[in-house]
Design brief:
alpha+beta, Rossmann fold, 3 helices, 4 strands, 18% helix
């Protein structure tokens, strides 16, 4: 059997709340699913159904209370899995002073595989019409990957 793009088994996320955090709110309960490589898959459902929670669990922004998940055969707890995925939230937050140049400098930190990120950062700024991207605040450049949707635009990585 081929490796699935996404495998989720009994994934659960509880959040503590209340006085001394003695109560819990379950936002995702026992999700089991499999998405094969090459399939197109989307999450649909009402507010509070666990769509965002599932995505945040898969990319490692939050951690599961129970269950396991794998992306391309690697556990979501395996840090190396992150070099194979990307995540762009609908409403990202950027520090007001963070520029593309600063982001590239941060990519020079050892153990981060950032050659692709540095290349992509410059490419996105250029295609997004940011001009001198190293000096412009990222928050003011553009939202999302609009350049990637333009006809004829191709990503360098």
């Amino acid at each position: 059997m081929a490796t699935a793009a996404i495998e989720i088994e009994n994934l659960t996320k509880d959040y503590p709340f209340g006085f001394l955090h003695l109560k819990k709110k379950t936002s995702l309960e026992g999700l089991t699913m499999r998405v094969e490589e090459g399939e197109v898959f989307g999450f649909l459902g009402p507010n509070g159904a666990g769509k965002s929670t599932t995505i945040k669990l898969l990319v490692g922004l939050i951690f599961p209370t129970a269950g396991t998940a794998r992306i391309l055969g690697k556990s979501i707890s395996d840090i190396s899995m992150h070099q194979d995925i990307g995540y762009l939230p609908e409403q990202p937050y950027f520090y007001d002073y963070l520029t593309a140049g600063t982001a590239r400098l941060l990519c020079a930190i050892p153990r981060l595989a950032c050659a692709r990120a540095q290349s992509a950062c410059g490419w996105h700024a250029e295609k997004g019409g940011a001009g001198d991207s190293a000096k412009n605040p990222i928050a003011k450049i553009f939202k999302g990957h609009a350049a990637a949707r333009r006809p004829g635009a191709s990503h360098p990585a």
